[in-house]
């Protein structure tokens, strides 16, 4: 087989960075009339544009405290009580204020701690219902529910809860009492410094997870929090570790597939992984000479190293006639009579349909990894050329730009298959599959040229890059739910 590969990681999408300032750096500025500089609005030119910020812990704390202070001043409650309300209402200040006005007593009962002032304490002995020890009443404390327990029991209760990873969800010790303990009450009963720090760390994580505009970066060992006012299934980008992900659901970016659909698809793939293992082999027989061929590149345009026959890795069809039949290659043909067949036949047809989409999904995932290996090899060869005086890195930069674009296009194409799998039959699905096939054809043409980048005409390569990206953006504009 003839064919190498090129970059396939999500890192190839670094041109999609979404911090407020960096997004504009990737666009040209021009004005053909009077040569004045005009800023191109990425919101109008890039369907995947998403404005977000990468915040450190201190910046997040400041943002959260501003909201706490706003609610605390508005309702005249303690900051700790405000935090309990905000956490339980997803930091929706207007909703909390409305609820507060409608049912003031209910909110106060569930949030305010009631520590009796020393001046009002009538010194007497009380027996704690937990440890059954009798102590002076000044050793007893309660939340707004008035369930009193001794200080030692509160301390033990909090330590146990915190060691189990619970923080904002710590409630009163009384049976069937759901009143939550505010921060100030918990910290008052924690003597050990390490427990106080662990508790504050847990509460911070809970606050961020409950805030709809905040997401922890999923990058390895990254403590950055991504902030955006728009809660959409768009690609968020961490400017620190360069990780990209879907802001709405927090998993890998998956346009054009919706969050709920990609979760269903990934669950199904995990459940049916053993069934699909047989289609994951790296080798197939040449359809002409039957010699075993290993796919070691991302391109699906294969050429047998023995008989030089050109064919498609996916459908095994002759590549010479593949351009006109590409729509049939990526499209699954439904059995019109499946509804009238037996349950066994229907189950077999369902499995056949799933395997059709899974094979293409998995194939593009592998192609991305293989093309990443090709990019590494390409960088090595270009470096040798530069060291030999055959141009500079700038002269060869267009090859890496092509590699990054190929990765971005193939990544989008991979996620079109879960989208198509769950689509209902009809004109809209037919249009989607047509655009999907067009994109796939142009991606394979681009992959073929990139794998032979050093011998491919630069103008031809750049023209193919333009065509592939237009196919990708057209599909996203028509089917990406924004």
TrEMBL record:
Residues 436-478 form a coiled coil. It catalyses: [E2 ubiquitin-conjugating enzyme]-S-ubiquitinyl-L-cysteine + [acceptor protein]-L-lysine = [E2 ubiquitin-conjugating enzyme]-L-cysteine + [acceptor protein]-N(6)-ubiquitinyl-L-lysine. Residues 1-20 are annotated as: Disordered. The keyword Coiled coil applies. It comes from the Eukaryota. The keyword Membrane does not apply. It is found in: Nucleus. Its EC number is 2.3.2.31. GO terms for cellular component: nucleus. PROSITE patterns: TRIAD, ZF_RING_1, ZF_RING_2. GO terms for molecular function: ubiquitin protein ligase activity; zinc ion binding. It is an enzyme of class 2 (transferase). Signal peptide: none annotated. Residues 124-333, 289-333 form the RING-type domain. Keywords: Coiled coil, Metal-binding, Nucleus, Repeat, Transferase, Ubl conjugation pathway, Zinc, Zinc-finger. Belongs to the RBR family. Ariadne subfamily. This is RBR-type E3 ubiquitin transferase. The lineage of its organism: Eukaryota, Metazoa, Ecdysozoa, Arthropoda, Hexapoda.
């Amino acid at each position: 087989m003839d064919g190498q590969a090129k970059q396939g990681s999500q890192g190839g999408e670094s041109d999609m960075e979404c911090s407020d300032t960096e997004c504009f750096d990737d666009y040209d500025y021009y004005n053909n009339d009077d040569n004045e500089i005009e800023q191109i609005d990425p919101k109008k030119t890039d369907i995947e544009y998403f404005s977000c910020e990468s915040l450190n812990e201190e910046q997040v704390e400041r943002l959260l405290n501003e909201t706490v202070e706003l609610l605390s001043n508005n309702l005249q409650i303690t900051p700790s009580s405000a935090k309990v309300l905000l956490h339980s209402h997803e930091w929706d200040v207007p909703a909390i204020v409305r609820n507060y006005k409608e049912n003031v007593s209910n909110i106060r009962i569930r949030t305010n701690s009631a520590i009796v002032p020393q001046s009002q304490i009538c010194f007497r002995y009380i027996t704690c219902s937990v440890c059954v020890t009798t102590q002076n009443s000044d050793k007893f404390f309660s939340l707004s529910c008035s369930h009193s327990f001794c200080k030692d029991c509160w301390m033990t209760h909090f330590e146990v809860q915190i060691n189990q990873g619970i923080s904002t969800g710590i409630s009163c010790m009384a049976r069937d009492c759901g009143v939550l303990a505010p921060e100030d009450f918990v910290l008052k009963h924690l003597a050990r410094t390490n427990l106080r720090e662990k508790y504050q760390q847990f509460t911070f994580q809970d606050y961020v997870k409950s805030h709809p505009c905040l997401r922890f970066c999923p990058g390895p060992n990254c403590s950055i929090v991504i902030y955006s006012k728009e809660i959409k299934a768009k690609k968020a980008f961490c400017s620190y570790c360069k990780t990209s992900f879907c802001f709405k659901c927090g998993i890998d970016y998956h346009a054009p597939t919706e969050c709920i659909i990609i979760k269903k698809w990934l669950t199904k793939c995990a459940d049916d992984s053993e069934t699909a293992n047989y289609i994951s082999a790296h080798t197939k027989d040449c359809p002409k000479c039957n010699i075993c061929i290993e796919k070691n590149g991302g391109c699906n345009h294969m050429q047998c190293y023995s008989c030089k026959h050109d064919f498609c890795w996916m459908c095994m069809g002759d590549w010479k006639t593949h351009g006109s039949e590409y729509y049939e290659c990526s499209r699954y043909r439904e059995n019109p009579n499946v509804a009238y067949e037996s349950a066994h036949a229907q189950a077999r047809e369902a499995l056949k349909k799933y395997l059709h989409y899974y094979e293409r999904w998995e194939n593009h995932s592998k192609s991305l990894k293989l093309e990443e290996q090709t990019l590494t090899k390409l960088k090595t060869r270009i470096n040798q050329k530069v060291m030999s005086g055959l141009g500079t890195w700038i002269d060869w930069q267009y090859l890496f730009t092509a590699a990054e674009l190929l990765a971005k296009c193939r990544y989008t194409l991979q996620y079109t298959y879960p989208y198509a799998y769950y689509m209902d039959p009809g004109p809209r699905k037919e249009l989607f599959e047509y655009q999907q096939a067009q994109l796939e054809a142009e991606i394979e043409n681009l992959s073929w040229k990139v794998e032979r980048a050093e011998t491919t005409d630069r103008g031809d390569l750049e023209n193919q890059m333009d065509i592939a990206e237009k196919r990708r953006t057209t599909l996203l504009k028509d089917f990406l739910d924004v």
